[in-house]
C-alpha cells in the first residue's frame, strides 16, 4: 500500500484546487478521478467574478484568456415576458468546462500531485483513510478529501447517501449550434422556465449552452419544460439533452468526519438561487487542503474537520442567506411582488446582476430588495428571514 499525506478524490475545480494547495504546502498528494482529462462536463460554464478572483488566489495567476469569454449584457425574462435588458453589467465569464477543468487538473499534477486520473475506485475506507482502485492498487492517507461531485462516493461512505432527494436540484442542458451573432449576443435568463429555478441561454463562440434547472421535487415534468424552452428560443425541442443533479443550497452542516473532508458539490456548496458551484468548489478545495496541512503539521489529522468547519463559516453564512432570499424570488406568495419591484427598479436589477456576477453578497441584496417590496410584504419577509436566521 502506497502512503500519502493527502488523497484527493475528484479532479474537477474543488479537487484540483485541493491537490494544488496541498502540494504547495509540502504535502504528498494522490489525485484520483475516474475520467481521463480533458473530459466532457455538463455545466452552463458560468464563471463569476468570485470564481475569477479565487482562481487567482489559488494558482497565483489569472484565468488564461483563451479559456473564457466575457459577456457584459443580459436579457432577463419572467414567465415569458421580458423584464429588462441590461447592457452594462459586471463581466460574466463563460467557459467550456472540458478545457477549463483540464487546465486546473494539469496545474495540480504539474505541481507534484501523483496522477491517478482515468482510474476507477473499488472501495473507500473512511475510518482508516484509504482507497482501493479497481485494478487492485491500494493507497492510504492521513487525510482524505472527497471532491467527487454531487454523487460523491466519499459522502456515501460517510453518511450512507450523497444527497437528500427531497431537496436536491436537477438541471437539463444541451450544447446547441451557435447563432451567427453569438459573440455579440447577450446572455439570457428566464425566471419561471422551471419551478423554483430558471432557464439560461449562454451564447458562446462555438455553441449555445441552453438549460433549465430547479428543485427536483417541484419539477416532475422537467423534460416537457425543457422542450418548451428550446422551442421558445427557436431550437428543435427534440434535441437530446443531458441531466445532472445539483445540491441546490442543501449544504452539509458537517462537511466530513475527522480526517475525511468534503469539498465542492460533494459538500453541497452550490448557490441555491443560481446553481453556480465553481467558485465555492475552488475555494472549499483550497480551504480543505489548508485545514489538512494545519492538522498534519500538528500531528492531529482527525482535527482536520474542526479546522475546516471554521474556515467554511463565511461560505455557509452566504449560502444560508441565499437560501432564505430564494423564498422571495421563487416562492409563489412573494414572486409577483418581487417581479414588480424588479421591473420598476433599475438599481435593483443592477444589484441583482452584481450579485449573480459575484461582486456583492446576498445580505446586501436582501436589504435592497426588502426596501423595494410593498411595506407589509417586506415586513413579513423580514420576519421570516429573521426567524430562520436565528434557527440556523
From TrEMBL:
<feature type="domain" description="FAD-binding">
    <location>
        <begin position="4"/>
        <end position="158"/>
    </location>
</feature>
<keyword id="KW-0812">Transmembrane</keyword>
<feature type="transmembrane region" description="Helical">
    <location>
        <begin position="6"/>
        <end position="32"/>
    </location>
</feature>
<dbReference type="Pfam" id="PF01494">
    <property type="entry name" value="FAD_binding_3"/>
</dbReference>
<keyword id="KW-1133">Transmembrane helix</keyword>
<dbReference type="InterPro" id="IPR002938">
    <property type="entry name" value="FAD-bd"/>
</dbReference>
<protein>
    <submittedName>
        <fullName>Geranylgeranyl reductase family protein</fullName>
    </submittedName>
</protein>
<keyword id="KW-0472">Membrane</keyword>
<dbReference type="InterPro" id="IPR050407">
    <property type="entry name" value="Geranylgeranyl_reductase"/>
</dbReference>
<dbReference type="GO" id="GO:0071949">
    <property type="term" value="F:FAD binding"/>
</dbReference>
<dbReference type="InterPro" id="IPR036188">
    <property type="entry name" value="FAD/NAD-bd_sf"/>
</dbReference>
<dbReference type="GO" id="GO:0016628">
    <property type="term" value="F:oxidoreductase activity, acting on the CH-CH group of donors, NAD or NADP as acceptor"/>
</dbReference>
<dbReference type="InterPro" id="IPR011777">
    <property type="entry name" value="Geranylgeranyl_Rdtase_fam"/>
</dbReference>
